[in-house]
Design the sequence.
């Protein structure tokens, strides 16, 4: 049987919002499988929310570069938050996002791209040597449109286009560029805050929908609902799921009395043409990366040569 540690219980509590004993029971029941434990809590009605974002467990910066109808976003990780405030590191991340505009989103290709006489990979290694801390280019993403704009928003910004959360939003429209950029930034801010999983229901991964249906069906069975009613109740539950998890159905953060889809329709008059969200990308620094839980006192003792 897998060992259930205090750190695992803590992580599940932060992810699910359930009580400590319920989290421990869920982990024991599911042999330490975190995702299965989350599902178990939801089926029991003990989880307050299914938080989609991974636990932020790495430092560094998200870098964003946008030129007209194209935008690129990169994540560069460091060991500590101190480095994110370093001008040299900030310059490195900005340079990497600029290079990726032409190099594309393949991490290895970005690292092989030249900046003057050296590669991006060499620049990363030089910065590691100067700052004395490990750094990695973790991932990159790109959005583009034929006609319209790619807008962006960076949360917890330390400099233009650099921060802890980055969002790109592609808007297709023949409308006014300045109005599109302004509205696109609002949509990007909404995505940063609400963290949708897709633009609309059609864009949700079928595997995610199936999993949600199974969770809802099991939950209602445990509540004693008749089998012939479960399918209808599940479909109703899915509508709530889409409202919570898909961009166009979510209440707009700038006016929660309307959905994002309604805000989009209203904005068409201002931008001067039809408007469509062609896609979005959201990077939160360190999501899904596990960081070792350090015993600080033990590390200090070790550094001092104590046993």
Sequence:
């Amino acid at each position: 049987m897998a060992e259930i540690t205090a750190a695992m219980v803590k992580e599940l509590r932060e992810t699910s919002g359930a009580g400590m004993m319920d989290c421990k029971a869920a982990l024991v029941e599911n042999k330490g499988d975190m995702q299965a434990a989350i599902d178990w809590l939801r089926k029991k009605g003990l989880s307050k929310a299914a938080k989609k974002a991974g636990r932020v467990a790495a430092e560094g910066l998200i870098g964003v570069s946008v030129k007209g109808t194209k935008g690129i976003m990169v994540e560069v990780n460091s060991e500590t938050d101190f480095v994110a405030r370093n001008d040299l590191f900030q310059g490195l991340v900005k340079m990497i996002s600029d290079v990726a505009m032409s190099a594309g989103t393949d991490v290895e290709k970005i690292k092989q791209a030249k900046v003057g006489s050296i590669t991006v990979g060499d620049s990363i290694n030089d910065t590691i040597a100067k700052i004395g801390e490990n750094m990695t280019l973790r991932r990159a993403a790109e959005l583009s449109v034929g006609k319209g704009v790619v807008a962006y928003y960076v949360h917890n910004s330390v400099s233009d286009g650099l921060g802890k959360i980055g969002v790109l939003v592609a808007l297709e429209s023949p409308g006014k560029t300045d109005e599109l950029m302004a509205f696109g930034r609002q949509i990007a801010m909404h995505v940063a805050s609400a963290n949708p999983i897709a633009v609309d229901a059609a864009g949700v991964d079928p595997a995610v929908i199936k999993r949600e249906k199974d969770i809802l069906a099991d939950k209602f069975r445990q509540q004693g609902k008749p089998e012939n009613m479960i399918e209808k109740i599940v479909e109703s539950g899915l509508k709530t799921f889409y409202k919570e998890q898909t961009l166009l159905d979510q209440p707009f953060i700038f006016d929660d009395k309307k959905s994002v889809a309604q805000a989009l329709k209203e904005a068409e008059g201002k931008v001067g043409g039809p408007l469509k969200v062609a896609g979005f990308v959201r990077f939160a620094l360190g999501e899904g990366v596990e960081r070792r839980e350090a015993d600080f006192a033990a590390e200090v003792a070790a550094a001092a040569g104590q046993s």
